[in-house]
Design brief:
single chain; alpha/beta
Length: 222
Protein backbone atom coordinates (compact mmCIF):
# COMPACT_ATOMS: atom_id res chain seq x y z
CA UNK A 1 0.00 0.00 0.00
CA UNK A 2 1.10 3.57 -0.67
CA UNK A 3 2.51 5.50 2.28
CA UNK A 4 1.48 8.88 0.81
CA UNK A 5 -2.22 8.80 1.66
CA UNK A 6 -4.14 11.71 3.20
CA UNK A 7 -3.25 10.81 6.78
CA UNK A 8 0.45 10.60 5.96
CA UNK A 9 0.28 13.94 4.13
CA UNK A 10 -1.30 15.55 7.19
CA UNK A 11 1.29 14.03 9.52
CA UNK A 12 4.06 15.28 7.26
CA UNK A 13 2.69 18.81 7.47
CA UNK A 14 2.27 18.60 11.23
CA UNK A 15 5.83 17.32 11.56
CA UNK A 16 7.06 20.44 9.75
CA UNK A 17 5.25 22.59 12.31
CA UNK A 18 6.73 20.55 15.15
CA UNK A 19 10.22 20.88 13.67
CA UNK A 20 9.79 24.66 13.43
CA UNK A 21 8.98 24.74 17.16
CA UNK A 22 12.01 22.61 17.95
CA UNK A 23 14.44 25.36 18.96
CA UNK A 24 14.54 27.57 22.06
CA UNK A 25 15.33 30.70 20.02
CA UNK A 26 12.28 30.19 17.82
CA UNK A 27 10.01 29.73 20.83
CA UNK A 28 11.35 32.96 22.30
CA UNK A 29 10.85 34.78 18.99
CA UNK A 30 7.24 33.59 18.91
CA UNK A 31 6.73 34.93 22.44
CA UNK A 32 8.00 38.35 21.34
CA UNK A 33 5.93 38.36 18.13
CA UNK A 34 2.85 37.48 20.19
CA UNK A 35 3.10 40.90 21.87
CA UNK A 36 2.56 42.60 18.48
CA UNK A 37 4.13 42.78 15.04
CA UNK A 38 7.88 43.37 15.00
CA UNK A 39 10.72 43.87 12.53
CA UNK A 40 13.72 41.56 12.28
CA UNK A 41 15.89 44.27 13.82
CA UNK A 42 13.60 44.60 16.84
CA UNK A 43 13.27 40.85 17.29
CA UNK A 44 17.00 40.21 17.07
CA UNK A 45 17.60 42.82 19.77
CA UNK A 46 14.85 41.47 22.05
CA UNK A 47 16.02 37.86 21.71
CA UNK A 48 19.72 38.83 21.93
CA UNK A 49 20.45 37.26 18.53
CA UNK A 50 22.46 38.47 15.58
CA UNK A 51 20.44 39.84 12.68
CA UNK A 52 21.45 36.88 10.49
CA UNK A 53 20.58 34.30 13.15
CA UNK A 54 17.20 35.90 13.90
CA UNK A 55 16.42 36.05 10.17
CA UNK A 56 17.22 32.37 9.73
CA UNK A 57 14.95 31.32 12.59
CA UNK A 58 12.16 33.61 11.39
CA UNK A 59 12.30 32.09 7.91
CA UNK A 60 11.86 28.62 9.40
CA UNK A 61 8.82 29.85 11.33
CA UNK A 62 7.47 31.46 8.17
CA UNK A 63 7.86 28.30 6.09
CA UNK A 64 5.86 26.44 8.75
CA UNK A 65 3.20 29.18 8.51
CA UNK A 66 3.54 30.04 12.17
CA UNK A 67 4.27 33.67 11.27
CA UNK A 68 3.31 35.97 8.42
CA UNK A 69 5.16 38.98 7.06
CA UNK A 70 4.20 42.38 5.73
CA UNK A 71 6.52 44.84 4.04
CA UNK A 72 6.17 48.49 5.03
CA UNK A 73 8.65 50.61 3.16
CA UNK A 74 12.08 49.13 3.84
CA UNK A 75 10.91 47.20 6.89
CA UNK A 76 9.55 43.66 6.97
CA UNK A 77 7.24 43.11 9.93
CA UNK A 78 6.47 39.70 11.43
CA UNK A 79 3.21 38.75 13.12
CA UNK A 80 1.67 35.48 14.25
CA UNK A 81 -0.21 33.57 11.55
CA UNK A 82 -3.51 32.64 13.14
CA UNK A 83 -2.79 34.41 16.41
CA UNK A 84 -5.12 32.40 18.65
CA UNK A 85 -4.06 29.00 17.35
CA UNK A 86 -0.33 29.70 17.69
CA UNK A 87 -0.76 31.05 21.23
CA UNK A 88 -2.83 27.98 22.13
CA UNK A 89 -0.17 25.72 20.61
CA UNK A 90 2.56 27.37 22.68
CA UNK A 91 0.49 27.01 25.84
CA UNK A 92 -0.21 23.33 25.12
CA UNK A 93 3.50 22.74 24.57
CA UNK A 94 4.17 24.34 27.95
CA UNK A 95 1.63 22.14 29.72
CA UNK A 96 3.16 18.97 28.25
CA UNK A 97 6.66 20.15 29.17
CA UNK A 98 5.69 20.98 32.75
CA UNK A 99 4.15 17.54 33.17
CA UNK A 100 6.69 15.38 31.34
CA UNK A 101 10.10 17.09 31.27
CA UNK A 102 12.09 16.91 34.50
CA UNK A 103 14.24 19.97 33.71
CA UNK A 104 11.17 22.12 33.03
CA UNK A 105 9.68 20.99 36.32
CA UNK A 106 12.90 21.76 38.17
CA UNK A 107 13.09 25.31 36.79
CA UNK A 108 9.42 25.89 37.58
CA UNK A 109 10.09 24.86 41.20
CA UNK A 110 13.50 26.46 41.75
CA UNK A 111 12.87 29.78 40.00
CA UNK A 112 9.22 30.55 39.30
CA UNK A 113 7.49 29.01 42.32
CA UNK A 114 10.25 30.23 44.61
CA UNK A 115 9.30 33.80 43.65
CA UNK A 116 5.55 33.30 43.66
CA UNK A 117 4.13 30.24 45.39
CA UNK A 118 0.58 31.63 45.47
CA UNK A 119 -2.01 30.43 42.99
CA UNK A 120 -2.17 32.92 40.11
CA UNK A 121 -5.33 34.84 39.31
CA UNK A 122 -7.38 33.37 36.48
CA UNK A 123 -8.68 35.50 33.64
CA UNK A 124 -12.25 34.89 34.83
CA UNK A 125 -11.41 36.06 38.35
CA UNK A 126 -9.63 39.15 37.05
CA UNK A 127 -12.59 40.11 34.84
CA UNK A 128 -14.88 39.90 37.88
CA UNK A 129 -12.55 41.95 40.07
CA UNK A 130 -12.09 44.55 37.34
CA UNK A 131 -15.84 44.86 37.00
CA UNK A 132 -16.09 45.54 40.73
CA UNK A 133 -13.17 48.01 40.64
CA UNK A 134 -11.22 46.05 43.23
CA UNK A 135 -7.76 45.81 41.69
CA UNK A 136 -4.99 47.69 39.94
CA UNK A 137 -3.74 45.82 36.88
CA UNK A 138 0.01 46.25 36.45
CA UNK A 139 1.73 45.64 33.10
CA UNK A 140 5.48 45.28 33.68
CA UNK A 141 6.50 44.90 30.01
CA UNK A 142 8.54 47.60 28.21
CA UNK A 143 6.63 50.70 27.10
CA UNK A 144 6.72 49.83 23.39
CA UNK A 145 5.11 46.42 23.99
CA UNK A 146 2.46 48.05 26.17
CA UNK A 147 1.73 50.52 23.35
CA UNK A 148 1.07 47.68 20.90
CA UNK A 149 -1.64 46.24 23.15
CA UNK A 150 -2.52 45.72 26.80
CA UNK A 151 -5.30 44.80 29.20
CA UNK A 152 -8.00 47.48 29.63
CA UNK A 153 -7.07 50.12 32.18
CA UNK A 154 -3.67 48.58 32.91
CA UNK A 155 -0.95 50.72 34.47
CA UNK A 156 2.38 50.29 32.68
CA UNK A 157 5.46 50.34 34.91
CA UNK A 158 8.32 48.36 33.32
CA UNK A 159 10.11 46.12 35.81
CA UNK A 160 13.33 48.17 35.66
CA UNK A 161 11.43 51.31 36.73
CA UNK A 162 9.29 49.72 39.42
CA UNK A 163 11.48 50.78 42.34
CA UNK A 164 11.30 54.45 41.35
CA UNK A 165 7.55 54.45 40.66
CA UNK A 166 6.12 52.61 43.66
CA UNK A 167 4.18 55.75 44.58
CA UNK A 168 1.94 55.26 41.55
CA UNK A 169 0.53 52.04 43.02
CA UNK A 170 -2.35 52.54 45.47
CA UNK A 171 -1.38 50.99 48.78
CA UNK A 172 -4.96 50.07 49.71
CA UNK A 173 -5.83 48.01 46.60
CA UNK A 174 -4.70 44.63 45.40
CA UNK A 175 -2.31 44.59 42.44
CA UNK A 176 -2.48 42.00 39.67
CA UNK A 177 0.73 41.89 37.60
CA UNK A 178 1.19 40.41 34.15
CA UNK A 179 3.73 40.41 31.33
CA UNK A 180 4.45 38.46 28.11
CA UNK A 181 3.20 35.00 29.01
CA UNK A 182 3.33 32.16 31.54
CA UNK A 183 7.15 31.90 31.48
CA UNK A 184 7.94 35.59 31.33
CA UNK A 185 10.10 36.36 34.37
CA UNK A 186 9.07 40.03 34.55
CA UNK A 187 5.83 39.48 36.45
CA UNK A 188 7.42 36.95 38.83
CA UNK A 189 10.18 39.42 39.70
CA UNK A 190 7.65 42.24 40.09
CA UNK A 191 5.48 40.17 42.43
CA UNK A 192 8.47 39.23 44.59
CA UNK A 193 9.67 42.85 44.76
CA UNK A 194 6.25 44.29 45.60
CA UNK A 195 5.48 41.68 48.26
CA UNK A 196 8.78 42.48 49.93
CA UNK A 197 7.56 46.09 50.20
CA UNK A 198 4.22 45.16 51.72
CA UNK A 199 1.97 45.31 48.68
CA UNK A 200 -0.91 42.88 48.29
CA UNK A 201 0.00 41.52 44.88
CA UNK A 202 -0.73 38.46 42.79
CA UNK A 203 0.11 37.40 39.28
CA UNK A 204 -2.19 36.77 36.32
CA UNK A 205 -2.15 33.11 35.25
CA UNK A 206 -0.53 33.93 31.90
CA UNK A 207 0.02 37.10 29.87
CA UNK A 208 -1.20 39.56 27.30
CA UNK A 209 -1.15 37.14 24.29
CA UNK A 210 -3.29 34.56 26.10
CA UNK A 211 -5.73 37.25 27.22
CA UNK A 212 -6.07 38.49 23.64
CA UNK A 213 -6.34 34.96 22.23
CA UNK A 214 -9.25 34.30 24.60
CA UNK A 215 -11.18 37.06 22.81
CA UNK A 216 -11.09 39.42 25.78
CA UNK A 217 -10.97 43.20 25.25
CA UNK A 218 -7.61 44.89 24.80
CA UNK A 219 -6.45 48.47 24.39
CA UNK A 220 -3.59 50.04 22.47
CA UNK A 221 -1.85 53.41 22.61
CA UNK A 222 -2.87 55.45 19.58
Amino acid sequence: MSSTGPKQAIFTGLAEVAQALGHAHRLELLEHIAQGERSVEELSARANLSFANASRHLQILRRARLVDTERRGKRVLYRLAGNNEVVDLMRALGRVGERNVAEVNRVMTDYFRARDALEPVSRTELISRLRDGLVTVLDVRPEDEFALGHLPGALNIPLGKLEDRLGELPANRAVIAYCRGPYCVLSFEAVAALRARGFLVRRLEDGYPEWKAAGLPVEAVA
